[in-house]
Amino acid sequence: MTAPAVSVLMPCYNAARYLPAAAGSVLSQTLTDFEVVAVDDGSTDGTKALLDGYAAKDPRVRVISRPNTGIVGALNDGLEQCRAPLVARMDADDVCHPDRLRRQVAFLRDNPECVAVGTFAVLFGAGGRVLDLQGEVTAHKDIVARVRRGAGGALLHASAMFRQDALRAVGGYRKEFAWVEDLDLYLRLADHGTFANLPRYFYGYRKHPGAVCRIRRTEQTARKERALAEDFARSGRSRPPALSREDRYRPADPALARDRQIVGLLARGAPRRAVVSAAKGVLRTPLRRAAWDVLALVSCRRPPAPHKVADLLDGPQLALPLAIAPATVGGNR
């Protein structure tokens, strides 16, 4: 059997409420040469039945069902089953733009030194309200500088596409760094190639009130410190000071800071002001495609139905409109 161009690795845990939107956004990609490796991590809410239904209808979907071990075990078991040279992460409660995979594949083809490429993201709440944007830096030097100061989110893990040979070269994910598995992975991958972010809002990341960063903060902080200490001991580099929360999310480009301010207006219930500000941004930099993304996002007055959550807006510049299933806590966060 010929290997696909991309393996989409999607761990799933009690994500039935959000899975139709996530799976629909993946199966609607403009790049069609991919497989979905969906790992059911011992779900009890009907996730497995949904996954089996997708697999019955689409031969690109392969389902792995196993007892619950948590995110790291699910990722490693799924990685073992990935057949493509490129592995794209996807969370079972998020959505992605239909052109996401095609753009990331093209970037990695044109940049053979790159081992991981992410995208900017729209952050939205469990109930669907747009909260913020994430996307501070695009270049390797800026990403790796933030990673080495503890900011694993400089390359949003769920949006990333990796070279599988690089993932295997570093041994995949390590169980002892669960909850900071992305940071630990990046610290080891940085010795094997470069990182990048596409400066487009191609991913929709759902934030939950019961996310790991809230309920496991103490353990997460301790494991982050251990991963950073191990990295600096291994490399011999002197350790820079940790980033403050403000600096961690401070965009390197003033245009990205303006994007966040515009979406902040929308989040605070001022959609008209958001649209006016976004339109001014497009007039200021008409060739900047992310500016069009933001205008399309804030102009979307009525989100599409949940099963059309990643449908494109009309127009030459495309954004990710978000609609949203009812709120429950799900997914491996």
From TrEMBL:
| Superkingdom of source | Bacteria
- Which InterPro entries does the record associate with it? Glyco_trans_2-like, Glycosyltransf_2, Nucleotide-diphossugar_trans
What the entry lists under Pfam families is as follows:
Glycos_transf_2
Give the Glycosyltransferase 2-like domain ranges: 7-167
State the UniProt keywords alphabetically: Glycosyltransferase, Transferase
In alphabetical order, the GO MF annotations are: glycosyltransferase activity
The UniProt family comment states: Belongs to the glycosyltransferase 2 family.
**Name of the featured protein:** Chondroitin synthase
